[in-house]
Amino acid sequence: MLIPRFSLSQTSTHLSISIRCPYVKFSSGKDENGVEVDLLSGNDFYFACKPYYLHLYLPGRVIDKDQLDYRYDLETSSFCFTYAKENPNEHFENLDMLTRLLHQDEKKKKNNGIKTNQIEEIDVQTNADEDEDDDEPLWNQMRQMEINDQVKEEPVISSSIYYGFNQQYKEVFSSFDSEYLLIFDNPSPDTLSMSSIRLSRLEKENEDFNLEHFLADKDEFDDEKTILDYSIDLDDELTDEDRDDLKNLKYKQFLIDDPIPIYLGLIDLLYAFVYDQRITQGDPCCESPWNIQKVSSTLSWFETFTDLPSVLIASARRTLTYPLIRSMKLVKKCFEDVQKIFLQDKRMILKCLLKMRRLFLDEEHRYLLNTLYLNDYCLWIQTDCQKKWLESLADAMKHWIKDEFNENLLEFDLNEKEVQWKVNLCEQNDTDDDDDE
User: Is the pTM of this model over 0.90?
Assistant: First the structure.
C-alpha cells in the first residue's frame, strides 16, 4: 500500500483533509476499488482506497459523520474530506508537520492507556521536564553554561566515537572506502574525539586562511549591493515536493539529554544554507552542496557546539577562509537571516532543511550527511523542537552580535596581518622601483 500525498487546512469551525490519489479509477460514477474511511476517538483518521492507505493522528478532535461523504476533484485527482471541529474556534497546531501527523506522539499514547516501552517512557519524562522550564529563557541557560562550563572535561573515552544528530551514530565510515572521507575535513570521524576535532579544525582554518583573498573582498565586495541587499525568500508554504519528502521520512523516537547542542547545530546548518542562498540569489547551483558543507563545521568536521559564541565564531571563520566570497559584511547579513528564520513559523526552518537535504541527495558521497544529520533534524523540528527556544536563541544572537562580536574574536590577527602585508607590499614596490632605475 502507498501513502498518498496529503494536506490539511482549517477554518474556525471545520477541518479539511485533501488526499491526492491519481491512480484511482472510476467507472459510471461508481468507485470500483472502494473508498473506506473511518474516524476513531474523534482524532484517528483512516483512509483506504487501493493502492493507497493513510492513517493520520489529528491534532484535535472532530465530529464523525454518520455516512461516508467526500468530494473527488478530477483536476487535481484528490479526495477531499471535511469535518466539523468538536470545539468550534479551536485552532489545530502543526497541520504542516506531516511526519508527526503520521505517527502518534508518546504523550497521547500514554494518555490513551496504550502501553509504551521503557525508552519511550524516558522520552516522555524528558519532555515533561522541558515543559517545567517554560519560564526559563534559553539565553539565561546558555549564558550560565558559558560562564561556568567554558572548559568542559571530556568524558572518559570509550571504545567508539559518536557523531551525527544527538551523537547517536558511530563507525559509519568503517564500511566505506577512503574515497568517502575525501569530501570531509575531518580525516578520521570514527576515531577523532570532540576536543581533538575543535583543535584540528582551528589549526586547519589558520593554515588555509588567505589574507590576500580576504583583503581583496574587503576592498571590492563590501560595496556589492546585489548580494548584500538580497532578501531571503521567507515563504513558509510547503510545496508538493516538500510534502512527498515529509510523508516518506522515516520516523523515530529521540532520547535527548541535552538539547542545547542540537539548537546550536541548527544555527550552524541554517547559516551555511543562507550563505549559499545569498551568493546564488536563491537559485542553487552545482557548487551549492560544497558551499553549504564547507561553511558548516557540523557537516565538514562533525563538530558539536555547547555555547553560542563558539558556533557563531566558527561560522564566521569558515566564511572568511573557504568559499568564493569572504566578507565580514556578508557574515553579519547571514547572521541576521538566521535570526529572521528563527522568528518565523517552524515550517520555514523545515523548508530550509528539506532544500539542503535534496541538494545532498543527488551527491555521490554527501548523501551520508542526510543520514547523519538532516533526516533527523527534519523529524526533530516537527516533534521536539520548541518555538520558545528558537525565539530566545534569536534574541541571544542579536545581543551577542551587537555587543560582543568583532574581528578579534576570530583569532586570525587580521589587523596585524593587514599591516604586515602592506609593509611587505611597500617594500616589494620599493625594490621594483630600484630595479627599474
Answer: no
